[in-house]
Amino acid sequence: MFKHPKESQVSITELMLPSHSNFSGKIHGGHILNLMDQIAFACASKHSQHYCVTASVNRVDFLNPIEVGELVTLKASVNYTGRTSMVVGLRVESENIQTGEVKHCNSSYFTMVAKDEHGNNVAVPGIILDTEQAVRRFARSIARQQQAKHRSTKFKSSEFKIEEHIESIKQQNAKIEL
């Protein structure tokens, strides 16, 4: 079975309140991460028609601060489907209600795994790729998976070669005392 990404796309908009802010008066990153996890769950669950859990989050860069009183919109779409997992692409934007200015605040990729009622992984429907953008997003997810496997192998303690890294570390704000 295959489903179109449009069938499970989810979007939410929320007003940012003073209770969501940190000590500098900006919206707390943890609040945004919580919202991102919720919408990734909703999108993946809608696609798979099962309860889903977050397996990993691929990099969250906070590009622009979000102010109290702004509207924050989160958009989620399934970009990739494996056997039991899905990569949900998320985009976060804020809008100043008074000026109408919209800022891109961050984008991220959540890998979600579908579970049955006993907590076992369950197969998910495949995804229909009918645009060049959909193919690009799917291919990018494959590339990210391959990069993650390479990174985890390169720095595994049994594979790590300290001499390959000493010189670059010496140029950083660190002191080696071995």
Separation, N- and C-terminal Cα atoms: 56 Å
Number of helices: 3
Class computed from helices, strands and strand pairing: alpha+beta
* Rg on CA atoms, Å: 20 Å
Q: How much helix, percentage-wise, in residues?
A: 25-40%
The total strand number stands at 7
What count of domains describes the coordinates? 1
Average of the residue pLDDT scores: 94
| CATH class category name | Alpha Beta
Q: What is the ordering of alpha helices and beta strands?
A: EEHEEEEEHH
Largest sheet, described in full?
5 strands, antiparallel
GO molecular function, one term: long-chain fatty acyl-CoA hydrolase activity
Family: Belongs to the acyl coenzyme A hydrolase family.
Keywords: Hydrolase
Domain HotDog ACOT-type: 6-118
List the helices and strands and how they pair.
Elements: E1 2-3, E2 10-15, H1 29-48, E3 51-58, E4 71-81, E5 85-95, E6 102-115, E7 126-127, H2 132-154, H3 166-170
Parallel strand pairs: 1-7
Antiparallel strand pairs: 2-4, 3-6, 4-5, 5-6
